[in-house]
Amino acid sequence: MAGAATGRRRTVPRLTSADVARESGVSRTTVSYVLNGKTGVTIPESTRQRVRDAAARLGYTPSAAARTLRSGRSDLVLCVLPNWTIGPVIDTLLDHLTTRLADRGLSVLVHQSRGPRPLSELWRAVTPRVVLGLAPFAEEDERAMRQAGIQVVGSALDEITHPGTFSVPQTRIGQLQVEHLAERGHRVMGYAAPSDDRLAAFADRRLAGAAQGCEQLGLPAPEVQVVDLDVASAVAAVRSWRAGAEPVTAIAAYNDEVALAVLSGLRAEGLRTPQDVAVIGVDDIPAARLAAPALTTIWQAIDAQARYLADAVLAALDDSVEPPAQPDDVFHVIARDST
After folding, report:
1. CA distance 177 to 206
2. What is the edge-to-edge ordering of all strands in the sheet holding 296-300?
3. 90-95: which pairs have CB atoms within 8 A and are 24 or more residues apart?
4. What is the longest distance spanned by two Cα atoms in the chain?
5. What is the pLDDT of residue 74?
6. Distance, CA of 295 to CA of 256 (rounded, Å)
C-alpha cells in the first residue's frame, strides 16, 4: 500500500554544543560564550562568526532551559490569576498583555490559583523574571519573591495608594450604574447578582458601590436577587422585584451576561424595557450591542489596563524606564436603548 511505513521510526539525534564545536573547530566553552552572549570574555569576531555560521548550518539553537539554569532567570513573566471565571474581560486583558510583552521578548505564563499548591512551588520551578498578580499577593509570598530577586508587580480591585500597584476600584462601577439609572428618573432599584461564588471578589464590591450610590442619592438600598444564566432564574428574580409595594423599575446587573438573562426574564413576564424596567450591565461584550433592546453598560478600558500592566513590568525590569501613569478613563457608561 502506497505510503505505508515498515520497521521502527528513525530517531534523529539531538544536536548539542559539541556538534557546533566540532563543526567550527573551537571548544564547547567558546560555543557557549558566543551563542549565549557571554560578556567579559575576549573572543575574536572572526571566531564568533565561525561559531554562528556553524550553528546556522547545523540548525542548532541553545536550550532555553539550560540558559535559564546558567543565568538564574528566564524571560518569563508569571501572571498569577486568582480563582476567577475566565470571561470575555479577563480573556481580552490577557490577550493584550501577552501581545505587548511578546513585542519586548517576554513570554507570559498564566497560572490560575486553584487547590492547595503553594505559589512558591511554581515560581521556584519556572524562575520568572517578573511575577504579575491580578490580585494582591499574600505578604509572605511577595516578600519571598523579592528576596529571591524576582520583580513583583501587583494590581487590586480597590482604591489603593501603594506605588507600582494598579487598582480598578469595583465599587465605582456599581456607583456609576446607580447614578445613570437615577438620572433616568428611577428611584427603586434592584441588583442582579451572579450565582458563581468565584465572582464574589468583584460582585461584593460592585454591589457595595451600588448601595453607596443609592445612599448618597437618598434612595432605598437596591433589592438584591441572585440570577443564574437561565430564563427560569431570571423570571423568579423579576417577580420578586415587582412584587413589593413599590415595584423595582431599574436593575443594575453584575455584568452583561447577567443583564441579558434579566432581559429574557422581563420579556417572559411581558414587561417592556426600558418603559417598565430599565437594565444596565457591565463590560460591553459584543452581545450587549446585539440585544433587543441594545444593552446599556459600563465600558472598561481593558486595552489601557493591559498596557499599564505591561509597562509596569517593563519598568520593573529596567530602572531607566519611567513607571507608567495610571489611565484616567478606566470605565464609563455607554448608554443604549435598555435604559
Report:
1. 9
2. 223-226, 189-193, 250-253, 278-282, 296-300, 331-334
3. 90/134, 92/302, 92/303, 92/306, 93/302, 93/305, 93/306, 94/306, 95/306
4. 92
5. 64
6. 8
Question: What is the grid cell recorded at 194?
Answer: 451572579
101 contacts 313 by C-beta, under 8 angstroms:
yes
- The Cα–Cα gap between 323 and 310 comes to 10
Low-confidence winner among 22-36, 99-113, 151-165, 307-321 (lowest mean pLDDT): 151-165
How far apart are alpha carbons 65 and 72 in whole angstroms? 10
Strand order in the sheet with 130-133: 107-112, 76-81, 130-133, 151-156, 165-167
Q: Which residues contact 254 (CB under 8 A, 6 or more apart)?
A: 191, 192, 193, 194, 199, 202, 203, 206, 207, 282
Amino acid code (one letter) for 183: E
Amino acid at 250: A
Phi and psi at residue 229, in whole multiples of 5°? -85, 60
Q: How many whole angstroms separate alpha carbon 34 and alpha carbon 55?
A: 10
Residue 61 pLDDT more than 70? no
- Using CA atoms, how far apart are residues 317 and 150, in angstroms rounded to an integer? 10
pLDDT of residue 319: 78
C-beta atoms surrounding 143 within 10 Å: 12
- Separation CA 231–CA 249 (nearest Å): 19
The alpha carbon dihedral of 257, 262, 263, 265 has a sign of positive
Residue count of the chain, please give it: 339
Q: Where are the alpha helices (DSSP H) in 217-335?
A: 231-242, 256-268, 286-290, 302-317
Query: pTM of the full predicted structure?
Result: 0.74
Confidence tier at 166 by pLDDT (50, 70, 90): confident
CA distances from 108 to 20, 95, 126, 129, 135 (A): 31, 10, 12, 10, 17
Q: Are 225 and 237 in contact (CB under 8 A)?
A: yes
